[in-house]
Amino acid sequence: MNWIEFLGCPPQTIVLMVVTLLLLLLSGMMSASEVAFFSLQPADIRHLKQRNTMASERVLKLLKNSDSLLATILVVNNLVNIAIVICSSKVVHTVFKFNNATVEFLVISVFVTFLLLLFGEILPKIVAQNSNMKVALAFSQPLSIMRFVFYPFSYILISTSGRVGRMATPNAENISIEELADAVDMTTEPESEEQKILSGIVAISSREVEDIMRPRIDIKAVEQTMTFTEVKAVITETGYSRLPVYNEDLDDIKGVLFVKDLLEHISKGDEFGWQRLIREPYFIPMHKKVNSVLDDFKRQKFHMAIVVDEYGATQGLISLEDILEEVVGEISDESDVDESFYRRLNENTYLFEGKTHIVDVTRVLDLDDDLFEDVQGRAETLAGLMLEINRNFLKKGDEVSAHGVRFVVDNIVGHRIDKIKIIVKGNE
Predict the structure, then answer these.
(1) In this structure, is residue 335 part of a structural domain?
(2) Which pick of 109, 131, 234, 340 has the fewest CB atoms within 10 Å?
(3) DSSP code, position 396
(4) How far, in Å, are 30, 147, 254, 255, 329 from residue 76 at the CA level?
(5) CA 317/CA 215 separation, integer angstroms
(6) Based on the domain organization, do 50 and 82 belong to the same domain?
(7) Does residue 122 fall inside a structural domain?
(8) pLDDT digits over 25-46, tens only?
(9) Structure pTM?
(10) Residues of the domain holding 213
């Protein structure tokens, strides 16, 4: 009795069993390759580049065209799985005799599904997940061959799926700001520098000019009737490279004076007509979106704009630096003066400038950024927050409270709240 007679199976059945086993191994290899290649991290890629071996170069070459790699794996895996179903069905039908066709179909379905899931999917993927680098290196050569052999099929698959994808998502660019913000939060480390910058980029898409502009009261400008000596004094005092020029008041802005235009005339006296160097101003409405202003700055090569309301009255000023600071944070250079916007008086008491932005206050006090969101309305500054809470003008010594934080008017200049004392935890 030979070994075929001992198994009680005809030779063709034994061949089908061997073929099924080999196909299962190939299916497992495809599943493991998919997990191994597409779970490699940037650090793994850098390590592969440093290895400088033929296997590592093959892995890098395959990853360079990841769409083609994935298409090859899917094409081969599906062809192999179809072959496994056909071969295993014939094996089961030959080895076992069924009197009921329904029972035979159910047994074959359960048996084939079990084989494919356990040996063709689950076990290979577990191994690949734990040893993705080793698996990728080991299978790089057979995958390179398969990609060449099955290139026509993978090319058709990539082309078809690409066209279907473009047809199915014609307005993919219309992603909402909320969805983009959620994507940033999910794909970056919380509180990391990258997360802050990306969040800033998303934020300016929804913010209006009035949210970040320098208010009218803080605008430094020169009057058109000033002498050249007075103009130079203003430039020295402010340190700005561009200054608005007005006639009588800020509602009549005539242009913008570039300090660099004055350099060649710096030694001249009051007889010098500096007014002829004034450039055309750029006006924008206060409700214009910040990202739209940034586009205008880039296209028209502007660095500063005058913000006006619907009546044409000057409400503020916005510069390219103001917009960039919304993304990357405060920008300082050697000409900036250290202007501390707060002072700590004791453990729980602080003195802030009224024009300080609410987000800066919450950051200094280590409070949630949105703590005062329910009471601040459209206010962006600390003084504005107090007015929103009180709903009336305030005088020195007046106090308001919100969420356990007390705000006391410390000083008023004209009609403007200049200094505000903040007491946390209810202690002075």
Answers:
(1) no
(2) 340
(3) T
(4) 8, 9, 72, 69, 51
(5) 7
(6) yes
(7) yes
(8) 888 888 888 888 888 887 888 8
(9) 0.45
(10) 209-328
